[in-house]
Amino acid sequence: MLDLNTYGTFETAWCPGCGNFGILDAVKDALVKLQLDPHNIVLVSGIGQAAKLPHYLFGNVFNGLHGRAIPAATGIKLANRNLAVVVTSGDGDIYGEGGNHLIHAIRRNIDITVIVHNNQVYALTKGQASPTSDLGFVTKVQPGGVIDAPVAPLTLAIALDAGFVARGFAADKEHLSSMIQQGLRHKGFALIDVLQWCVTFNKKNNFLWYKQRSYKLGPDYDPHDKVKAFEKSLEWNDKIPIGIIYKNSRPAYEDACGLMKEKPLVEQEINPEGVRAILREFI
Amino acid sequence: MARIDITIKIAGEAGQGLQTMGQLLSKAFARKGLNVFANQALQSRIRGGHNCFQLRVSTERVLAPACATDILIALDEESLAHTQELTESSITIFDGTGKYKTLSHTTAKIAESRRRRRFSCSTLVKLKVERGLSLDIPLEKIAKESGGNKLMSNTVGLAAVLGILELDINVLFDLIRESFGAKGKEIAEANIKVAQAGYNFTYRKIPGKRLPSLKEISGAKKMLIGGSEAIALGALACGCKFISAYPMSPSTGIMTYLASKANQFGIVVEQSEDEIASINIALGASYAGVRAMTASSGGGFALMVEGLSLSGMTETPLVIVDAQRPGPATGLPTRTAQEDLEYVIFCGHGEFPRAVLAPRTIEDAFYATVKAFNLADKYQIPVIILSDQLMADSLLTIDELDIDSIKIERNILSNEELKEIKEYKRYRFTESGISPRVLPGNPYGLVVVDSDEHDEEGHITEDVDYTRPQMVLKRNRKNIGLLKEMAPPLRYGPQHAKNILVGWGSSYGALKEAVDILNAENEQVCLFHFNELWPLNKEYFDFLERGEFVCVAENNFRGQFAHLITATTGRIIENRINKFNGLPFCASEIVVEYRKLLNA
Question: How many CB atoms lie within 10 A of CB A96?
Fold first, then answer.
């Protein structure tokens, strides 16, 4: 029986009071509830404070380049589909630097769970606008306020027909843990956008701001209705829904591809002799 | 038998079927045991433009294109631009009906006066404006009259070439039947009739002794393999299970071939959204334990460079093919160059070991790929295979590829070995710099890798007093072992020659032939040719000591290998032959340039 101790406790490089702590707790809680052994998990991240999360619990780790967590996670899952692959990175990493990869990973429907610590600001680089910063958000680089329209990540994911699109709140561990568990159980790409406050660089979208606006989707909400999901995903400012916004059952890449149905690629035989046979095709 | 060396050029627009024609012809010769080297000069477009497929057929092994063309098949008017490559004994085949306004006009005028007097066949026409013999063959008309259709005109042309050379036509019939298969039997038989007609049209109708007859030729069948295919075959033979790449000429052939064998070999071919994804996906797959690769040309490779550095930092094995084309930027997408040499060796931020292999022939590309995967795994580094358009788009006859010689060395600890280790650390400090590697998913040790500087366990660290310098030393210590793995240059020519030609990579064929020509004329020159370029061993340059005249030939402007020689040995080499117009070397132009430098 695995418990929280299985995943250890580590010293972190996060600011006191950071939303990342809540996300880390929720991740650990979800792994305990799913009874996932550390050696069967790979935590993949890019760069940023959020991307340091994999160092703060026991598991296999691929802490790659800024923006490139999703491609690395894709390769890992394709090579060994028996591994549970979780990406944890920030809004800058996934929606900015790695935006193109997000789009195409959703198209592939690779079976990975992507947790985006979305605090609407670039914190590790000391407070510039992120792709999700609200219009008018003032920073030292955007002194006149943000002009670019923010990315609506969930709307984008729904438009691409992502199989699992959810939002959690870093302060609600139980709910977020449930989102992560369901994301991990979902066979296909799962995006979990997490409302996360930044105590140092985002004075606007602070803990209270999210707390007052976020509300849980009730049992009457049907996440299979794509049009409703679009509508729901667009709610922001006054009210922000958390929960599973959209869900479908598109086949995951690993099932559609046909090459790894029986066993993971990494366990398959290699066939040098087969080359001898195909050489005849060149005569 | 006397040496036979014939170059056939099929020229026309993209979409006219040049490649199919060229490949069929090449295969026909290969099946008769002849040696073939074929390459392509293409324009970057889907239809139209001007392309050519050039094949050289010989009783000897040939590894490079020739400068002169013996038979030109001109499928459009623009193709006649190639007539400057013709010699007095060359033959040009064209269909003068309708297509060639200028030429047929000229033809008509000259034809009347010369036809009866000079040629037995009434449609063979000698054009005053060009060198050699021009054959106006109504390809389309022959196709239609022998029961075929317009689409079969190319078959007539092919058969006409075989007729001129008097090669056994049955070899073409077999190839036609095979290419159409059981389902296309009717079309195949129609094509065969058409081929027979084309063959008869030229067989023994060429006046004088222009080109040697291949009537008596018969030898053991040879394989005909392309450069991209050779790399792909090497990857399959040594257990590569994964390629992620973004299509880019001239590298795309590798993923295309692997995709055609995906089910048979269980190899995943993932066309990624961009080259940044390509390399990062491949690194993920390699981390999880499969042999993985990616391939691109210079521009795409440039996008991968941060990932290259990631491979170096995380010590994740990876094989990357850079099929070079002329740059900078988009450059000439479908032409050849050796311009990325310094780039692939020195690019990537930070300092980390890597190996660069530049195969010299298509066979060598097969073995180099196997070596690349083994080096990548053994040293846990990125290995770059530096190919180019010449190699990627060439075909070469090969007697055999030695599958038995292939050894797969993964350098991954088994679970049993891992159990013996008390506390597994992915980046344990070792004397060789190579740390024990295990795969994620094993129950005995977690695998932690990080693009940040990390401690022995793989976790992020900022310990600048001990861990950082030790990690830098550990990573770069791998160079010591790696250097010993690199092959010395191949020496070709008289051992004690005072005159030395130096080259690397795909230009080997042309350089070797140039050395043959020069030595046949008593020049006493020796070639030193490198196919494993980085790390570069200073000891391999001892030959420079005895060289009175040393000249480096390469397909770039700056003399990049000459620079590397200076950086490695301190010796400055001033004599250089640099070709950078996008076309490969041929031997005779190297001979000319060499003599110019020698006599300067």
Answer: 18
Contact criterion met (CB < 8 Å) for A75 and B282: yes
Domain extents in chain B = 5-202, 225-405, 415-485, 490-598
Q: pTM score, two decimals?
A: 0.95
CATH classification code of B490-598: 3.40.50.920
B71 min Cα distance to partner chain A (Å)? 24
**Could you read off the pLDDT of A118-158 as tens digits, one per residue?**
999 999 999 999 999 999 999 999 999 999 999 999 999 99
Burial class (CB in 10 A: 0-12, 13-18, 19+), B420: exposed
Domain count, chain A: 1
Give the tens place of pLDDT for each residue, B126-174: 343 357 888 889 999 999 999 999 999 999 999 999 999 999 999 999 9
Neighbouring residues of A107: CB distance < 8 A, sequence distance ≥ 6: A160
Dist. CA B412–CA B435, nearest whole Å: 10
| Encoded amino acid at B299, one letter | G
* Omega before B535 within 30 of 0, i.e. cis: yes
What tens digit of pLDDT does each residue of B496-518 get?
999 999 999 999 999 999 999 99
- Chain A interface mutation, best of B27, B240, B287, B459, highest count of A Cβ atoms under 10 Å: B287
Nearest to A57 by CA among A5, A9, A100, A11: A9
Neighbours of B17 (CB within 10 A): 20
Going by pLDDT thresholds of 50, 70 and 90, the confidence category of residue B82 is confident
